[in-house]
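Sequence and structure are kept together here, with a separate record for every protein. A complete record is shown below as an example:
=====
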Amino acid sequence: MINFNVPPTTGEEINFIKDAIALGKICGDGKYTHMCSEWIREKTGSAGVLLTTSCTHATELAAILCDIKAGDEIIMPSYTFVSTADAFVLRGAKAVFVDIRPDTMNIDENMIESAITEKTKAIVPVHYAGVSCEMDKIMELAKKYHLFVIEDAAQGMLSSYKGQQLGTIGDIGCYSFHETKNYSMGEGGAILLKDGEMLEEAEIIREKGTNRSKFFRGQIDKYTWVAAGSSYLPSELNAAYLWAQLLKADEIYDNRMKSWNRYYEELSGLAEAGYIELPHVPGECMHNGHMFYIKAKDLEERTRLISYLKENEVMSVFHYIPLHTAPAGKKYGEFRGEDRYTTVESERLARLPLYYGLSEQDQGQVIHTIKKFYKKK
């Protein structure tokens, strides 16, 4: 069976994990946490970066930093993972869903303004498949209405918009290092901050509301509880695992892009014949090869395609069920405007196997099987 995903490994992870253990500090904010954070900061140009236990927790931390409260409204796409909404719903806010663009599956920037009310506190663009949302328009709206912009860049590390790294355009950016992402620590994430004062506040919240980070830097002679916080600090063992991949980040990027480009080139004939649609990457966007998907005619055809691939030893999967159709989505949120594309486009999308180290032979088998399916039609 050709798996849909294989977690990335470079061969050095065990050595770095052993080193972390030997150093005698595995609870976090040690050698590997700092090296990973600094690497991301330098690579992205962010003012400050903190590793977190997940992208979910990075987004929760962002919600706390933006002082999201009960009664606030947060605008986001419905076509996203539940964490995007959960982070704000936990603070008592309402998730306000708007429609997506059918070309990129990202939030439709032209649907945002009509969803803004006096209760709106933030916009949360989700960069689907590592392809940026139309950030100029989103930042313009945020400035006009004095809103926070929190980028859900879970899939967007090393992707950019007009030369600027995703996660660094808005006020706060959130990355994921889940095992399905380009770079992994099993379960983990990072928060990227533009503002130095916000970075200091984030350190305190992340360390259970204490100023422990200042203590370890020698800025104070003892640390204490100074604010409400939680535990968003990952283990050094996770950071050591991630460090092995960051050292080979360019190699991993190139490998994924090679696979992505091959899918695009070899399936373009089916797209030109009108059988499928391929991903669209706007000219101002540079993506990271995070995901390759195709769109079938409709839900029925997608179901048959996924079943056919599975029968032929290829794992293909669909993605999000729109949040506004879920029980919790109806309870904690509302869809504003018309659902022209969110539901119908989500029902057409099928993701193909794509991971670091996908062999040419296996990828060829995926492509061959898809072509065979449509030849039968």
About this structure: The longest helix spans residues 249-272. The first strand starts at residue 48 and ends at 52. The chain is about 40% helix and 15% strand. The two ends are 24 Å apart (CA to CA).
